[in-house]
Amino acid sequence: MSRMGAEALTVPPAPSSPKAAPEGAAGAIDVSAKRIRREHLGQLLKSWSFRIGGAVLLFWIVCAIFGQAISPYGPLDQNLLLVNAGPSGAHWFGTDSLGRDVLSRVIVGSRDILVIAPIATLLGTALGAAVGLVQGYFGGVVDNLVGRVVEAVLALPVIIVAFLFVVAAGPSTSTLIIVIGVVFALLISRTVRTAVLQERELDYVAAARLRDESSVHIMFVEILPNVLGPIVVEFTVRLGYAIFTVATLSFLGFGVQPPTPDWGADIAANSGYLAAGYWWETLFPALAIASLVVAVNLVSDSIEAVVNQ
């Protein structure tokens, strides 16, 4: 037999084992995911809005952690000889009606709001993601039942719903976290539900069903990683609303209780002195709230722009 004929009859080499191909594909997907994450991070770091918002947010985080150490005076220290004193070299933001240094109270007052708001938002995001996954994946009766409950609770403005729950349960740090988290979970669940409705019709979900995977596995292992983008955006957006909600409830007397330094409570305590011309007691805590909310919104907008591109 000629060489050509022998070569024609040569049995081709055995293909690699079925296990090798998926491992290689998984490795390629993992590398691609890491590359995409690096690109997104690079785009964020190039964004001026992200840099500015991140810098302001970092400043307030430092104040929340090291406030007692960096504040010029104790936030509860009183000097009755300097009641309602205007801004000066000794007191940059002036003093309030009890002779306390406003700057020190603004610095230390960032602590509670930067503890309550992020934890409440994280709780709301986790609960909202879980509810949204269940709604979107199962649909039908489950979706309609949960959807009606969400619509009923959100028929009123969010701040009113939170206020009613806090009044009923009594003001405390844990109450604020739970109430804000649950209310925000209802809002976040709607966004996650919409994303899951699109994902559940894709081939990888059908393949998981053919493999007889459980519903829990499909929702939290297969679908959840593919809807993390909207969830991250929701977290950053709701964080700004949580800060404003905590400050509003404190202003109404149902948040952080005096004499603990708190921006919303300090605005409420000193707003009556505006007519007498003591503007600094209210202005600086209000500017602190505004700067923190704007910083979070700048970071949120930057992340949303990168995720949605």
Describe the structure.
The structure is a single chain. The protein has 309 residues and is mainly alpha-helical. The chain has one domain (87-307): MetI-like (MetI-like fold, Orthogonal Bundle), CATH 1.10.3720. It has twelve helices and no strands. It has helices spanning 3-9, 20-46, 48-70, 102-138, 140-153, 158-169, 173-199, 203-210, 215-223, 228-251, 263-270, 280-307. The radius of gyration is 27 Å and the shape is elongated. The chain starts with a helix and ends with a helix. Mean pLDDT is 84; it is low at 1-26.
Features:
MetI-like fold; mainly alpha; disordered N terminus; 309 residues
Return the CATH architecture: Orthogonal Bundle
Q: Helical residue percent?
A: over 70%
According to DSSP, the number of beta strands is 0
Mean pLDDT metric: 84
The top level CATH class name: Mainly Alpha
Q: What's the domain count? A: 1
Percent strand: under 5%
Radius of gyration: 27 Å
- The CATH homologous superfamily is termed MetI-like
Shape: elongated
Would you list the SSEs in sequence order as H and E? HHHHHHHHHHHH
The largest β sheet comes out as: none
Number of helices: 12
Would you give the CATH topology?
Answer: MetI-like fold
